[in-house]
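Weekly puzzle thread! Below is a chain. First person to post its structure in token form gets bragging rights.
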Amino acid sequence: MQVAGIGYCAIRGCDRRAAELAAGIALCRPHHETLSSALKTPPKLFREVVYYATWPGESLVKIGTSSAIVPRLRALSTGHKGRAYVLAAEPGSFSVERKRHREFRASRMPGTELFRSTPQIINHINRIHADWPTWAELAGIGTEWQ
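Winning reply:
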């Protein structure tokens, strides 16, 4: 469908008739779909994040690493009561995760990646909030992960 009075796609080298307007710019349907798709999936700011997750009613914090935080949250939600949620996330990979595990080893539950919620961990999470955007922005996804 051509949009009346618009003419051709504004993308250089494209000779297709404009079908849609995006922010006042005339685009053909394929370029409009590409732009729409890109806007729905923001780029990741970091390849991997170290996340701090918990569950409703829990006093434990899971410190882990993921490059795909949404599927990881789903997996964490299947083995516990309730839906897992992220308290904070910081840029980093397994080396940062290991550093955090060593840093908070006194509150670690033996044989797990679960830590008692201590003032040290809460202070660290608060520092992350001061230094980094929300975990959803950091991981490049929306706030809902259903």
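Puzzle host: Confirmed. Bonus trivia for everyone else. The chain has two domains: 1-41, 49-139.
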